[in-house]
Write a structure and sequence with these properties.
With 211 residues, the chain is of the alpha/beta class. The protein contains ten helices and eight strands.
Length: 211
């Protein structure tokens, strides 16, 4: 018998420790998301501004206490809309995006931000390069006065993730950043062992995406 979404959530929560589960609802229909909400899941991740705009205002009207994380690449021209829709932006990764965000200071100061680090230095992935991360973190905190709470990464798929998670943790420690968003459906338990405070799990909860 297939496990239900509440059963899957309960199994994951039992192994999370103190880490927070971000249920990645990208491409999932409102019915599946409502199943998770009815099982007391309140923290979700979306990759696209447009999709979040289509789904979440009505869900927020039905359920209280939702915290929505932007976990996909964010275009600078959609910064204002993202700030209006999301509670947490996990993909701050370049100076132009930071400048677009600080054009809306009243919105920005109400949010939390993670800086995305391209921890595997992969050309096809977003994120500030590890060697540039220290300077960018200092600029976002010192010059732009953004509420940076932690770092986020997506390690290379074809390599052992632990070394990459550990590298991210070292960068965060240099800046006294306490939160680490790392680990997805395939590697979240490794991420927890390496100090993750947030894990982003989608397929393992909801199954394959509808679109």
């Amino acid at each position: 018998m297939n496990e239900t979404i509440p059963d899957i959530l309960a199994g994951i929560r039992a192994r999370l420790g103190a880490a927070q589960l971000i249920a990645v609802s990208k491409g999932q229909d409102a019915g599946k998301i409502a199943e998770a909400l009815n099982a007391d899941q309140r923290v979700f991740g979306e990759n696209y501004v447009q999709e979040a705009r289509e789904k979440w205002p009505s869900l927020r009207a039905q359920f209280t206490g939702i915290e929505l994380h932007m976990i996909g690449p964010l275009q600078s021209n959609k910064a204002k809309e993202a700030l209006e829709l999301f509670d947490v932006i996990q993909t701050l990764d370049r100076d132009s995006l930071a400048k677009a965000i600080i054009k809306h200071p009243e919105l920005a100061r109400q949010k939390k931000f993670f800086i995305q680090v391209n921890i595997g230095e992969e050309a096809q992935k977003s994120g500030v390069m590890p060697n540039d991360a220290d300077a960018f973190i200092r600029k976002c905190i010192g010059e732009y006065k953004l509420p940076i709470v932690g770092l986020m990464c997506i390690p290379p798929q074809d390599r052992e993730p632990a070394a990459h998670f550990q590298r991210l943790a070292r960068i965060a420690a240099r800046h006294d950043l306490k939160q680490l968003s790392m680990g997805m459906s395939a590697d979240w338990q490794t991420a927890i062992a390496c100090g993750a405070t947030h894990v982003r799990i989608g397929t393992a909860i909801f199954g394959e995406r509808g679109r």
